[in-house]
Design a protein that fits this description.
four-stranded mixed beta sheet, mainly beta
Length: about 260
């Protein structure tokens, strides 16, 4: 009823924390300098108070936030014309904290190559996706995945500018042939080497192979030299049990073949 007194609603809040985030440009294994005008966003996870704060860094690359205690996912994105990509990390905030944390954005990488059919003709309209995981340092085993995509041109060439990310997690490239293309995609050649070792940069290629089949795969490095000891893994649905995933795996020899 309109005359009912519901009393006073009290929402207890813990003492907020003062957090300074300095956004730094990082190339290889060293910090290059501060990144001003980067977009910093902090989102609180879990139950309780929902908070999402967003601010730009100052001339020294520092963003100052007042946050309620809890677990946050923090992202720092430099301006679109910057040579450095987005950084993502986890941040635990305690009541009354007055802390400073560095957020390191790695240099973007230009990935370019070509998509061909088995007969050597280029495949236009193929969708090439680069997936990259960001390790959340405050959460054991947790990560966030981002992706970028590009379409091959009439000559089969494709190029995309992707964030550098965490070298320990590596990139994963997937090539999807256009829907109208009936033949398998044979290869996607990476011209510019990744900022990681070959083992940290798996290459995933969609293929449509008749079964049973015997195929020789050749793995080449960025300079066109054979990669010995690379792992090649095939996965497919079983002919009789379509819900069962079949797999085969092998190691390349000294000539890069398996």
């Amino acid at each position: 009823p309109g005359d009912t007194d519901l009393g006073e609603l009290l929402v207890p809040l813990e003492e907020p924390a003062r957090v300074k985030l300095q956004v730094l440009a990082r190339d290889q294994d060293r910090d290059i300098g501060a990144i001003p005008l980067a977009d910093v966003e902090a989102t609180r996870l879990g139950q309780g108070v929902r908070q999402r704060a967003r601010v730009s860094t100052d001339a020294q690359g520092v963003a100052s936030l007042e946050l309620q205690p809890g677990l946050y996912v923090v992202s720092a994105t430099p301006s679109p014309d910057s040579l450095y990509g987005t950084a993502i990390l986890a941040l635990v905030v305690n009541p009354g904290d007055d802390t400073s944390t560095a957020v390191r954005c790695r240099r973007k990488r230009l990935l370019h190559g070509a998509v061909w059919a088995p007969d050597g003709t280029p495949i236009p309209g193929a969708r090439v996706v680069d997936r990259l995981r960001f390790d959340l340092g405050g959460l054991t085993g947790a990560s966030i995945e981002r992706s970028w995509a590009a379409i091959s041109d009439i000559s089969g060439n494709v190029a995309l500018l992707a964030d550098g990310g965490d070298p320990a997690l590596g990139h994963e490239i997937t090539v999807h042939p256009p829907p109208s293309f009936l033949l398998p995609v044979e290869t996607f050649e990476i011209v510019v080497p990744f900022p990681t070792t070959s083992a940290d940069a798996p290459l995933v290629v969609d293929m449509n192979l008749p079964a049973p089949f015997l195929r020789t795969f050749e793995v080449l490095g960025p300079e066109g030299k054979p990669e010995a000891g690379a792992t090649v893994r095939l996965s497919w649905l079983g002919a009789s049990e379509r819900s069962r995933l079949m797999q085969a795996e092998g190691q390349t020899d000294d000539d890069g073949r398996v």
